[in-house]
Amino acid sequence: MAVLDLNYYPREYVNLLMKILHIPNLLSGSRLVLAPLAFYLIDNLMWRAAAIVVLVAVLTDLLDGYFARRLQLESHSGGLLDHSSDAFFVTVTLAALATQHLVSWVLPCFVIGAFLQYVLDSKAILGQSLRASLLGRYNGIAYFVLAGWPVMQNGLNLHPLADPWFLWASWALIASTAVSMLDRLLALRRARSGAHA
């Protein structure tokens, strides 16, 4: 069993193997695969399986950053992959919930718009660090919560919140996202006018 026991090998070899495999990027990228699966399961009302997929997605989101820091593999491209995977997973999951009339269809569209603005404004494609506003960061967390909560409560067959609450929460997030996007746009205009002054 020593072949499977990572404690059997010296830590340097384990770390080297994890760096070669680039575990953080594999974890981030897994959400790109999990998203269509989540959509299928939610669309077909397979709530228990969908809840497992959502839990795995959250777990990979928590672990990718941890391993990136621990293995000193933090990079702009890794951060972009992480955020892109989050945005894709959340958007697809919210779209699936919209097919069940649990959230508004407007929200997944706003998530895409906010993410694109975030990437373009940060110039992340050019290798610069992603710059999140405080409201944008809270919105990102709220997207995950709203995407996961109805799936989990249906998967566990526990319903502390009635379905209309999710629809109202989606409209609140739409408003919050609009404010965040407007704030980012105004900050960009101020920065540009300050650079020309």
Would you kindly provide a written description of the structure presented here, covering whatever features stand out?
With 197 residues, this protein is mainly alpha-helical. The protein has 7 helices and no strands. The termini are far apart.
In short:
The chain is mostly helical and 197 residues long. Helices cover 78% and strands 0% of the residues. It has helices at 11-21, 23-43, 47-70, 76-99, 106-122, 134-155, 163-196.
* Beta-strand fraction estimate: under 5%
- Low-pLDDT runs of 5+ residues are none
| Terminus-to-terminus distance | 68 Å
Question: What's the total count of β strands?
Answer: 0
Rg measurement, Å = 19 Å
Q: What is the C-level CATH assignment?
A: Mainly Alpha
